[in-house]
UniProtKB/TrEMBL annotation:
Keywords, comma-separated and alphabetical: ATP-binding, Nucleotide-binding, Transport
Organism: Nocardiopsis coralli
Composition skew (Basic and acidic residues), residue ranges: 1-11
Domain ABC transporter: residue ranges: 16-249
UniProt entry tagged with the keyword Nucleotide-binding: yes
Top-level taxon: Bacteria
InterPro entries the record matches: AAA+_ATPase, ABC_transporter-like_ATP-bd, ABC_transporter-like_CS, ABC_transporter_ATP-bind, P-loop_NTPase
Stretch list, region Disordered: 1-20
Name of the protein described by the UniProt record: ABC transporter ATP-binding protein
Any one GO molecular function term: ATP binding
CDD domains reported in the protein's UniProt record: ABC_NrtD_SsuB_transporters
Amino acid sequence: MNRDTRPHSQEGPDVLDVNGLRKTYGSAGGSVEAVHDLTFRLDAGELACLVGPSGCGKTTLLKCVAGLLAPTGGTVAVDGRPVHEPPPDMAVVFQEYGRSLFPWLTVRGNVELPLKEKRLPRARRTALVEEALEAVGLAGSARSHPWELSGGMQQRVAIARAIAYEPRVLLMDEPFAAVDAQTRADLEDLVRGLWQRFEMTVLFVTHDIDEAVYLGQRVLVLSSAPTVVQDDVEIDLPEQRDQLTTRSAQRFTELRARVHGQIQQAKQASARE
Ligand SMILES: Nc1ncnc2c1ncn2[C@@H]1O[C@H](COP(=O)(O)OP(=O)(O)OP(=O)(O)O)[C@@H](O)[C@H]1O
């Protein structure tokens, strides 16, 4: 394994730079301004969560950051390079793992596919696939097909595929929304473990305030559409987190109350408009 497995460092240059981002959808029936003016930066190795009221433009923002959707205005840059198409050093995990995995390929085949597209040599591909499957606890399921696995296991395959790609930036769009509560807790711990093990910058979109506070070093709270960054909350909880101790800490309750309050304000502001 030639990846750096040191714990992440909070210091480092900006990896992701979103500046004055705007997105208006146009259609025959009129236009919808989804993202009004978004500016934020993530440092190398940061794990930031993005929360906001339903329909506030989280997915729109993520698609613009991933180079899948052209913004109406503003810029996105990864490592100082403007994003106009999916950047080579970025991976995305979507909510709908069922639709993102190819049912006719094995688990190994699914994880390996993007590495073939990257034209990596076979020996390197094998090493990366094995490492990723081991990291998500699926080393024993490499020959299974996705439809033979539970929902939580399928989402772990999608995560393995993303980390095998060795991204500098990992985007996750409500990746655990479709799994049960216990699996979700396990996957949250998996993501924090992988983030600490591999040097990645992670932007994690979620509806769930508790999940955002539990996972993140920062929580960016978005306003209702048209969207701006309404609050940027530093999560000053200890780096070593576990579901029981962290979630029952006084500070966790205070932070979740702050994020909750901001989202309520965002909803009320949009109701007054
Ligand atoms: N392709 C599209 N064409 C027109 N309007 C769209 C399109 N995609 C999204 N929108 C609108 O843009 C706004 C933001 O949508 P988006 O899906 O980005 O929000 P979201 O915060 O991810 O939503 P949710 O929390 O429900 O997942 C909404 O008003 C939505 O109706």
